[in-house]
Write a structure and sequence with these properties.
With 297 residues, the protein is mainly α. 73% of the residues lie in helices and 0% in strands.
Length: 297
């Protein structure tokens, strides 16, 4: 990979490891619905005109059925549940739990006919990865946070299935148009719920929302497209394995969250499991790359 590719890769690792910290700060004063409304609404204001000017919005809207399914799975449902869960969970633990997405995606891809058979290496990877998730939950989660962990579990399933929907039904639709339309649709969904009672938050929370919107959504999206063009889709998606470590580090350094036994035991297992479970068979031709997803956190 070129020097430019490595710079883009490092940028994406930070930009998509940062949202968990910013969400944790934002929900101190905002409801989950208000946060999703602000994040998607502000991002849509930027990306919708951009996509429309490039002629990429109308093709996305024509594919409205898969667009709605993708929007619900990638943004509307998981972004709300993620914000709700972080009212009870540390940002670092949330990021580590979301690292299980590739494990669930391996199951979902196999069930949907998008992957070759589960060989011994992949089965071992799934077993190791889910053992890591069990360690995270069993060692770090107290009784009162079980509901929050369940919410993150739904988020993981949504993030695992959404790319399959995009790959099957939206692969020929411009990805920027899909992203812009999905952001606008989600903002409209949460407008009647999030707008009432919404007030200007404190400077700290407002800064978190703006960073979440501009850096982690708009800039991250454009950087991700550039990374795909520079390094290819498979190398670009390796950031999935690095983001949780960034979330863990930021939670410890910025929010003074503890480095727990569950993180020390569970995260390495999840990481190893993800690498093994998503390993491609050398004898099977690689399938067409998935459509580029929107930022998944």
């Amino acid at each position: 990979m070129t020097r430019r590719g490595w710079v883009l890769f490092a940028t994406m690792c930070v930009l998509w490891g940062l949202p968990y910290l910013l969400i944790k700060i934002a929900v101190e004063e905002l409801t989950p619905a208000q946060l999703v409304l602000l994040r998607t609404g502000l991002a849509a204001v930027v990306l919708v005109p951009y996509a429309a000017a490039r002629g990429q919005l109308l093709p996305a809207l024509r594919a409205w059925k898969p667009l709605l399914a993708f929007t619900a799975l990638e943004l509307t449902v998981p972004w709300l549940l993620l914000a709700d869960a972080e009212r009870d969970l540390p940002s670092s633990l949330t990021g580590l739990l979301v690292a299980a997405v590739p494990l669930v995606a391996a199951f979902a891809a196999r069930a949907g006919g998008h992957a070759d058979r589960l060989d011994r290496t992949r089965v071992l990877g799934l077993a190791v990865g889910f053992a890591g998730v069990a360690a995270l939950v069993g060692l770090d989660v107290e009784g009162g946070a079980v509901r929050a962990v369940a919410l993150v579990g739904v988020v993981v399933v949504c993030y695992a299935v959404a790319p399959l929907v995009a790959d099957r039904w939206l692969s020929r639709v411009p990805s920027t148009g899909v992203t812009a339309a999905a952001l606008a649709i989600t903002a409209l969904v949460y407008l009647p719920v999030g707008a009432p009672g919404l007030q200007v938050p404190s400077g700290r929370v407002l800064a978190a929302v703006l960073l979440l919107t501009v850096a982690c959504t708009v800039v991250a999206l454009l950087a991700f497209f550039a990374l795909i063009a520079e390094a290819g889709p498979q190398r670009a998606l390796v950031i999935t394995f690095v983001n949780p470590a960034v979330a863990l580090l930021l939670g410890i350094v910025v929010l003074d969250e503890a480095l727990t036994l569950g993180a020390l035991v569970g995260f390495p297992l999840v990481l190893v499991g993800c690498v093994l479970a998503t390993r491609r068979s050398r004898t099977v031709e690689a399938p067409a790359p998935l459509a580029e997803p929107v930022p998944s956190s």
